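Batch manifest, entry 17 of 40.
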Amino acid sequence: MMQEYLDFAKRNTEYFNNDQAMIKIILDPDSIHSWEESKKKDLADKNLPPEWSKIGIILDDPYILVIRDLVEFPSGRLGSYFRVLNQADLKEGQGVVILLRMNGKYLLLHQYRHPIRSWSYEIPRGFGEPGVPANEQAKIEVKEEIKGEITELIDLGEYHSNTGLEGNRVKLFLANLNSVGKPAAQEGIESFSFVSINEFEDMIASAKITDGFTIAAYTRAKLRGLL
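Output type: structure tokens
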């Protein structure tokens, strides 16, 4: 596990940059091994799983990579710290979020989300695919989720959803929608609707919209005077 992790660090140096870092990543194999052995003893004393002491790649999934780093905190204490990375980010792709506008109204999906085991009102988005630029990925997501065609795509910049855990760089867009078809039921999308900007804002204010990506795209576009 350790060698795979160290090789990954060499290939992806931007994710292990310690320049001006208050929390520094430790990549010295001896330091990692020493910490792992000490941590393993602590876990054994508490009857906890010994694998919690392992530093390295914890999960290598087609969509995400989960890493446990050994880090040095500002106090000098060494400890472990989790990170989740998007596989597309590592392979010249990028996740995208698209706020869609058509005839002066904005599209909202009514979509079932497995992680929260509930329904969500949100705008189209996707993990991204390796080698696919963000602007092309946005068009693909709109086509896949609602059979829609985009006539104009406005870049709203990057967004980090959870800086305490995720290293993903998601690109936000505002787009004008030319046509729309049926929702993709296989992705858990029951339906979609078009709402006015006032209705959109009321749904955010009343917590009917709770999806952070949707709120972020709306906020970025609103503050830029684009809505």
